[in-house]
Amino acid sequence: MSDFVLETPRLRLRHLRLDEADIEAISAIFGDPVAMRFFPSTYSRSEVEEFIQRQLNRYATDGYGLWAITLKTNEQVIGDCGLARQLVSDTAEVEVGYHVDRSFQMQGYAIESALGCMKFAFDQLGLSRLVSMVRPENVPSRRVPSLGLCRCEPQCPEPPSAPPASAVFCPERISHRFGGTAVATLADFAARELSIPRTLPS
Predict the structure, then answer these.
(1) Residues 115, 8: contact at Cβ < 8 Å?
(2) Quick one: pLDDT at residue 168?
(3) In what order do the strands lie in the sheet with 11-14?
(4) Which of 23, 80, 125, 168 could form a disulfide with 66 if both were Cys (CB 3.0 to 4.6 A apart)?
(5) Structure confidence at residue 135 (pLDDT)
(6) Higher pLDDT, 108 or 140
(7) Quick one: residue 90, left, alpha or beta (phi over 0 = left, psi -120 to 50 = alpha)?
(8) Range of the domain at 48
(9) If you average pLDDT over residues 42-66, what whole number do you get?
(10) CA of 22: how far to CAs of 18, 39, 45, 134, in Å?
């Protein structure tokens, strides 16, 4: 069975693998003190292996998890991005999250992969909302919430118990900002905000 999940203009997302190549690629991120400065600590190799195994378990039980971000040009793994069930102040949510290798940051890859995952969640999984929990001081990761896709409309009220640093995404909000359907507007968003050709998969 193919482990391919989705593609965006520059990226392909696939299942993480518990092999040497993926362990090394994810370790390069999770073992980097600068990349992990907003997390409690860096990860050891064994902790990276446990992280990948958790994603494999999520694929089997939930049908999704955090996936490997690979470049279309050479299939290099540059990070992970995907969906994960989270309990936020006793409320069950699905979070979109990502980690990108520091040498590939500030090139729009995190936003591009997150948009692809949002499209997958809304179109393929039929979800009506996603959350993203970002620490206030993590300015780079706050770029997606700050772009106006997550200010809640009456259709997707933010639960009172949600942390102040969380953001809520929903198809209605995306359509409200750009007009049209949520499917089309994610591609429009990528073209307008990231200068990426409008070729997100249908």
Answers:
(1) yes
(2) 54
(3) 4-7, 11-14, 66-71, 77-88, 91-100, 130-133, 166-169
(4) 80
(5) 54
(6) 108
(7) left
(8) 4-194
(9) 96
(10) 7, 21, 11, 25
